[in-house]
Amino acid sequence: MDGLIVVDKPAGMTSHDVVARIRRLARTRRVGHGGTLDPMATGVLIIGVNRATRLLTYVIGSEKSYTATIRLGQSTVTDDAEGEVTATAPAAAVPDEAIRAGLAAQVGEIDQVPSAVSAIKINGERAYKRVREGETVRIPARRVTVHRLEVLDIRRPQGPDVVDVDIDVTCSSGTYIRAIARDLGTALRVGGHLTALRRTAVGGMTLDAASTLEQLEERAPDVVGLPMSEAARRSFPQRVATEEETRVLRHGGPLSAAGIDGPYAVFSPAGDVLAIVSERGGRARAEIVLAPA
User: What are the structural domain ranges in the chain?
Assistant: First the structure.
């Protein structure tokens, strides 16, 4: 089958581990994922199967939502709980108002420096690999957008002199939640890192539609949750073609413009997705043709 699977990724697995599992369950090699989750993270991981792997380029660019926990008072080499603690500072006396203000300063369009232990390539090599080999890595800041950042709770656990902050974030693709934790700790001069991360949505696909790997095992090999047409409906604006436009588009020809911004999905009169198109020069031209000619 061709389509997308919304997986509720468990902790302790890489995104590549999940892809390998789905390849076995779906009995096909044509499987990919739409946006990496760190091994520590859980939640929404979009998997494309067969022809739907062509949709993943657009899925990767969708806005994303997360719940997370920031621990103030400790810095780590990875900016999350998987890395070695590199510095500590008393944090219990940091007032709630300062925490809220420090997070509010990271809402909107910001220049964010990704974590040094990330998959970003520096001179052709992954940054995390360079760090693990003992190299000091400097990654330039990138412009990202934090659309919403809500503080859910501020907790002061007994024992360690730390503060735990639960947050809910919606942000643009390319935003690092552990960088938000690091930068909050830096602003408050106590250090900070991420102790929990759960992705709750990628574009219009949420945890409500997600399946665990155990549930997919029970359904194998019929593991696709969103067939191609339904996946396109959830991911793009829509346009319905006439019979003549359907014929033209099946062969890769252009359509007249409809005035729709950005890439959108074109459907046949029967409701089957034909192509993902974008408008330029007064014409709607296919970026990818999904229907057979």
Answer: 3-62+203-227, 64-199, 236-289
Q: What is the pLDDT of residues 216-249, one digit of tens each?
A: 999 988 888 889 899 899 889 999 999 999 999 9
Q: For the domain bounded by 236-289, which CATH number is listed? A: 2.30.130.10
Report the C-alpha gap between 274 and 241 in whole angstroms. 9
CB neighbours of residue 65 within 10 Å: 20
CATH class belonging to 64-199: alpha beta
Do 64-199 and 3-62+203-227 have the same topology in CATH?
A: yes
Under the phi-then-psi rule, with left for phi > 0, alpha for psi from -120 to 50, and beta for the rest, what region is 2? Answer: beta
Its CATH class, for the domain covering 3-62+203-227, is alpha beta
**Which whole-number Å values give the CA distances from 171 to 40, 127, 176, 196, 209, in the listed order?**
19, 22, 9, 17, 20
Secondary structure string (H, E, C) spanning 190-250: CCEEEEEEEEEEECCEEHHHCECHHHHHHHCCCCCCEEHHHHHHHHCCEEECCHHHHHHHH
- Answer yes or no: are the C-beta atoms of 260 and 279 closer than 8 Å: yes
User: What tokens does 43 get?
Assistant: 């939640």
pLDDT in tens, 27-74: 999 999 998 898 999 999 999 999 899 999 888 889 999 999 999 999
Low-confidence ranges of the chain (pLDDT < 50): none
Give the pLDDT confidence score for residue 132 in this predicted structure: 62
Closest residue by Cα to residue 34 from 237, 221, 199: 199
Active site residues: 38
